[in-house]
Amino acid sequence: MKPIHHSSHTMRAMTFLSVLLAGGLSVSAQTNTGESAAPGADSTSPGGYSLRQTNGAAANVRMLSLQDCVQLALQHNLDLQIDRYNPQVALFALRAAYGGYDVSLFLSGQHSHNEGVPTLFGTNVFSGTISDENTFNASLGGVSPIGTTYSLQGNASDDYGNFPETSSSSASVTANQPLLKNFWIDSTRLNIRVGRNRLKYSELGLKLQIMTIVTSVEQAYYDLIYDRENVVVQEKAVELAERLVSENRKRLEVGALAPLDLASAEAQAAQNRALVIAAKNQVRTQENLVKQLITDRFSSWADVALQPSGTLTATHQFFSRQDSWKKGLTERPDLLQSKLDVEKAGIQLKYDLNQIFPELDVFGTYGFNGGGKEFSGALYDVQQMDRSLYTYGGKVTVPLANLSARNIYKSDKATRQQLVLGLKKLEETIMIAIDDDIATIQANFDQVQATTAQRQYEVAALDAEQKKLENGKSTTYTVLQVQRDLTTARGAEIQALDNYNKSLSQFSFDEASTLERLGIDLQAK
């Protein structure tokens, strides 16, 4: 039988996770395990399922499979809920970057009144002139994706009070095109490319967080199974010790045993009971750790005891180091994020290089004028397009030292080289981690085999020693020692199984196969 952690069939479920990046982010999970919940949902109980009572267990015991825990974590883990907003934030930042291409509309209207000062000419006094003027201006402009600055302009004015009364108007288009600096990339294009890069980065960050949470859930689940099994181991130790106490008490009554031997057995029984208490407390602590990972309402889970439905098993697994390296180096989210950091640095470097060049721009204006005694006449002239206006030319600005742009370019170039080295180091770290994981898995499997054999031997040894004690050929001290050895062997076996399962989980994380192995499908929409 393959272990629950490595076969694609043992999960018996496909968890579907939908990550919506536009218009909000949501996660949905569908799991069909056949063992996760009782029929009927109770909205007041943790996770929306009714708590079921099994084999006389208390009503506040919740039976959970690993699949259940993963599903609950995907839906309710607070760290995941927090990080789920990162792609939204990055998407809005990208959309904001496109605001650099927004078209601006400008409208203005103005009335001017002017009364001239009277003038004295000889003995005659001439009154000052009185004039009024209405002026209207409009423009529509922005920047194109190739850096062209453009503006559509129109104005009209009506001057009355003076002689002769006149009206004028004009309509024109003006454009300015960079040919060197800000030609192949400018600040708007820089922000857009970086925004796209950061959106991908945030999506990978969310995937990494999901992998991290799921791996933590797996390992916490296996530890919970171990802790509960350890309680059983310690309770069996108490049973053995108390049975020996009972037998020794009978032997003491018939004078076949010294009182010190009874006291020794009673002391061991008391010590074992204390270990049971400690083991049960560890179970409660581990339950809280699992609850922290799978719920965002701890208060509703506080009095619920978690009962894992899974078991710790170990089946020998075979791995291809080359295949795992290839998978890890192509799919690890943190490695892909590092590649995006290098790409982002390259985008910045391209912009920095363009800023070193002089400004060489060509510009031009073309339009039509109009005039008349009234607005209508002036506007009519513009419509006839027979009074043209135009300008064209070029301008160049050459920074003589350009220290700022040159040193920013050198600084960012060094930063990019640093990021490339960091990427290479991360690749080496991933390869080493995978290599270590494979060795650890093999060692842990061997440890399972060894501890199982040791436990089987200790069971037989205790049976033989108890028979010797019944025949007067052994001592209470020896039996107690063998009992302790058996308890130690049982604990070592379940610890080895726990370590083996957790090492498989860690290996899946390091080679980036966690989501695939557990049937979790990420979809960005």
Structural class: alpha+beta
Report the CATH architecture of the largest domain. Up-down Bundle
CATH class descriptor of the largest domain: Mainly Alpha
Note the run of SSEs as H and E.
Answer: EEHHHEEEEEEHHHEHHEHEHHHE
Superfamily (CATH H level) name of the largest domain: Outer membrane efflux proteins (OEP)
The largest β sheet comes out as: 6 strands, antiparallel
**Percentage of β-strand residues:** 15-25%
Overall radius of gyration? 41 Å
* Mean pLDDT over all positions: 85
CATH-assigned fold name of the largest domain:
Outer membrane efflux proteins (OEP)
Looking across the biggest beta sheet, what order are the strands in?
3-6-7-8-10-11
Q: What is the number of helical segments per DSSP (H or I, 4+ residues)?
A: 12
How many domains make up the coordinates?
A: 2
The CA-CA distance between the termini, in Å, is: 38 Å
Shape: elongated
Give the low-pLDDT segments.
1-58
Helical residues, percent: 55-70%
- Count of beta strands: 12
Looking at this protein, list some descriptive labels:
525 residues; alpha+beta; Outer membrane efflux proteins (OEP); 2 domains; two-stranded parallel sheet; 12 helices; 19% strand
Describe this structure in words.
This protein is an alpha+beta fold and 525 residues long. The protein has two domains: 15-96 and 191-345 and 413-524, Outer membrane efflux proteins (OEP); 104-144 and 148-179 and 360-397. 55% of the residues lie in helices and 19% in strands. It is built from twelve helices and twelve strands. It has helices at residues 66-76, 78-83, 85-97, 187-253, 259-294, 298-301, 321-331, 333-356, 375-384, 403-470, 476-510, 514-517; strands at 15-19, 61-64, 104-115, 119-121, 124-126, 130-143, 149-160, 166-178, 305-308, 359-372, 388-397, 520-524. Strand 7 (149-160) and strand 8 form a beta hairpin. Helix 1 (66-76) runs antiparallel to helix 4 (187-253) and helix 10 (403-470) runs antiparallel to helix 11. The protein is elongated, with a radius of gyration of 41 Å. The two termini are 38 Å apart. The model is unreliable at 1-58 (pLDDT under 50).
